[in-house]
Amino acid sequence: MKGNDQSFSFQNVPNTVLVSPVKEISLLVNKKIKMYYILQTLSSSETVVN
């Protein structure tokens, strides 16, 4: 039982270590995409207004 517990926890640790940076990267990418989209819509709206 102890061996199984150790392997289980050992498998979980890399997952948690990997998940948090992936989430942060995806959040950053989403922010950049949103900013780019907002800038594009602003520039397109400006050209429409002009």
Overview of the structural elements:
By secondary structure, the chain is an all-alpha fold. The mean pLDDT is 74. The radius of gyration is 22 Å and the shape is rod-shaped. The protein has a domain at 24-50. The chain is built from 1 helix and no strands.
Offer a few descriptive terms.
50 residues; mainly alpha; 1 helix; 96% helix; rod-shaped
Average predicted local confidence, pLDDT? 74
- Helical fraction: over 70%
User: By helix and strand content, what is the structural category?
Assistant: mainly alpha
Number of strands: 0
What is the rounded Rg? 22 Å
Number of helices: 1
Residue stretches low in confidence (pLDDT < 50, at least 5 long) are: none
For the termini, the CA-CA separation is 72 Å
- β-strand percent reads under 5%
SSE arrangement, N to C = H
